[in-house]
Design brief:
By secondary structure, the protein is of the alpha/beta class. The protein folds into 2 domains: about 140 residues, TPP-binding domain (Rossmann fold, 3-Layer(aba) Sandwich); about 70 residues, SIR2/SIRT2 'Small Domain', CATH 3.30.1600.10. Helix content is about 35%, strand content about 15%. The strands form 2 sheets. A 6-stranded parallel beta sheet has the order 3-2-1-6-7-8, sandwiched between helices. Strands 4-5 form a two-stranded antiparallel sheet. The longest helix has 17 residues. The radius of gyration is 19 Å and the shape is globular. It starts with 9 loop residues before the first helix and ends with a helix. The N terminus is likely disordered. The structure holds ligand BV8. The site of ligand BV8 has 37 residues, from helix 2.
């Protein structure tokens, strides 16, 4: 390890010392790309009750309402572009292993593809992805950029049994074992653009602290989890994320 000059701010030290970094992102990292967040003023949930659109019960009760809600959002994200925060994380993801030999894993609650379109390679969508469908007849997860409201045939089994490949409330988030393993192997946990309102994602910072990781929060405002972080830096992601990475 390069000799650390004694006056480096504590997180510069942590960055230099950290080999493996787990980064949790939420809707706030995509806000400046024009994708609605959930709980900020005028956010998605203010336009829709969660119970009406993001639960299996809602889908069973009114599938057209749910399919239209996700069709609208799937179409919207395809008109948006990654912002400097996505681009900065992609640089870190690509360059960190060369600089330090460690790994970066971006665990996102987001269901847009802006991390990938920004160039990130190691992205884990714990709440699913708008641009996948899920066939309830054959359990395949075909790539899907169109609408589902007209019950199109599954490209694998031809059954009209496609639903959004989204983790709804009450459903089990994807690849939790991998996420906990990555946190257990990391030295630094960074949370970006999340209110800390939804579990188990919101509990990851506590798991990180219990395992002795350094924890850093980058957010527009203090979140429900801020008290659990060693440091919180406030500001728009497009400014504070590149400032942290670079
Ligand atoms: C589950 C669907 C069992 C996709 C979503 C305790 C333990 C475990 C579960 C629970 C628990 N207590 C309650 C539960 C149940 C529930 C839950 O958490 N309920 C909450 C409301 C209390 N959880 C579940 O049902 C989960 N499943 O628990 O299964 C289990 C448990 C453990 C292990 C295995 C299995 C399923 C949760 C997933 C639900 N699906 N979305 C979709 O429609 O998009 S959640 C939804 O909220 C989105 O995915 C979103 O990502 C997520 C979190 O929201 P945020 O991303 O944080 O967005 P938000 O708007 O809230 O905040 C934005 C933040 O950004 C703000 O802080 C804002 O200040 C900031 N910001 C804004 N602009 C900027 C910015 N920051 C920087 N720059 C900016 N420009």
């Amino acid at each position: 390890m390069a000799l650390l000059t004694p006056f480096l701010p504590c997180f510069m030290v942590a960055m230099k010392r950290s080999r493996n970094i787990v980064i949790l992102t939420g809707a706030g990292i995509s806000a400046e790309s024009g994708i609605d967040t959930f709980r900020s003023a005028g956010g998605l949930w203010e336009q829709h009750r969660v119970e009406d659109v993001a639960t299996p019960e809602a889908f069973a009760r009114d599938p057209d309402l749910v399919l239209r809600f996700y069709d609208m959002r799937r179409e919207a994200i395809q008109t948006k572009e990654p912002n400097p925060a996505h681009l900065a994380l992609a640089r870190l993801d690509r360059e960190w292993p060369k600089r330090d030999g460690g790994q970066v894993l971006i665990v996102t609650q987001n269901v847009d593809d802006l991390h990938e379109r920004g160039g990130a390679l190691n992205v884990l969508h714990m709440h699913g992805e708008h641009l996948n469908a899920w066939c309830l007849a054959c359990d395949s997860r075909p790539r899907w950029t169109g609408t589902l409201i007209d019950r199109p045939p599954c490209p694998v089994c031809s059954e009209p049994a496609l639903r959004p490949d989204i983790v709804w409330f009450g459903e089990v988030p994807y690849r939790m074992d991998e996420i906990y393993e990555a946190v257990a192997a990391a030295d630094l946990f960074v949370s970006i653009g999340t209110s800390g309102a939804v579990y188990p994602a919101a509990g990851l910072v506590r798991t990180a602290r219990e395992l002795g990781l350094q924890t850093l929060e980058l957010n527009l405002e203090r979140s429900q989890g801020s008290a659990w972080f060693d440091e919180t830096r406030l500001g728009p992601a497009s400014e504070i994320v590149p400032a942290w990475v670079d």
